Amino acid sequence: IVDNSQYHSYATIQNYLNTFKSNYPSLVPDVGVAPHKTHDNRDVSYITLSTNGVSSTKQAIFIECGIHAREWISPAVCLYFIDRLLATYNSDSTATALLNQFDWVIIPEANPDGYEYTRSSTSNRLWRKNRRRFTTGNCNGYYGVDLNRNFDAMWGTTGVSSSCTSDTYPGTGAFSEPESRNIRDKVNEIKDRLSAFISIHSYSQMILTPYGFDSSKPSNTGHITAVSNAARDKLYNVHNKYFTVGTPGELLYHASGGSYDWSMVGAGVSFAVTYELRPAGSDWATGFRLPANQILPSGEEMWESISHIALNH
Ligand code: 0X9
Ligand code: ZN
Asked: Which residues form ligand 1's pocket by a CB distance below 6 Å?
């Protein structure tokens, strides 16, 4: 269904979700709108994939894409993954196992206001945050909260700036933003059967293991690292792209209030990772502008990597 030769608008992404539901009604019990409208009054959509219908009690995996506006490859990979899962169920043994063993709840575009802002020719391609508008005090006239600093996981402690003009401004409190509340609420609905949480960003070619907020690690860190190393190898085998595995503190910087940390410390999920997709390297100006001809290979390598995590975590 998905055209993987280009990046798509929010409207097109919404259309794809509805087309998935109408073309695969027996595998897509629910395409819906998360409870909180964005600041610019957009809906944040989710899709549930299940062989068991809406009242399924199967183990579930949650994937969140697009929380940072400029990281366009993230929603593109989410769409590729959904499309391939649905199209090859019952013909491909991996897809069949992924859907027979798990339900999937996926938010392909968690920050539609920011995303559309980066797509507008008159605005800023490198916008990262949401589009909250500040109207009082020092912040009057400025916009945006970093959604991956807004979750209730050591909120406001590391990797943040209290300046509302900063790209890492965490907001006025944990879950001050509708976009992070949407992820929270959808996760909480299924947390008793949620076995993995996957957050997809770009760029740097990494699989980040928990925690991001400081140097502490969950008690099952050895297991998470082993599964991530194997998922890294599966990814590498597709197109020879090497992803580094480690915690944010080891590979990047500490950062509090992230979604994957919250999924563990707040929702009790026992396995969570954050991907940083293509490209590697440190050229900030080009890193977020991954050419559209790399959507398909990114989708293909991530298919293998996520499949490994799902079937082995
Ligand atoms: O800084 C971030 O939010 C992520 N990197 S990005 O370049 N995509 O912005 C890393 C997030 C790692 N997770 C946490 N630190 N919780
Ligand atoms: Zn990001």
From this structure: 68, 71, 148, 201, 208, 212, 248, 255, 258, 260-261, 274, 276
pLDDT tens for residues 133-146? Answer: 999 999 999 999 99
DSSP alpha helix (H) spans, the chain: 10-23, 73-88, 93-101, 112-119, 178-189, 221-239, 248-251, 259-265, 284-287, 295-312
For 47, the enclosing helix (H) or strand (E) is: strand 45-49
CA distances from 245 to 182, 233, 270 (A): 28, 10, 18
Measured distance CA(311)–CA(257) in Å, rounded: 28
- Convert 287-306 to b/e letters by CB count within 10 Å (16 or more is b): bbebeeebbeebbbbbbbbb
- Domains of the chain (ranges; CATH) run 10-312 (3.40.630.10)
pLDDT score of 283 more than 90: no
Q: Given a cut of 90, is residue 170 above it in pLDDT?
A: yes
User: What pTM value is reported for the model?
Assistant: 0.98
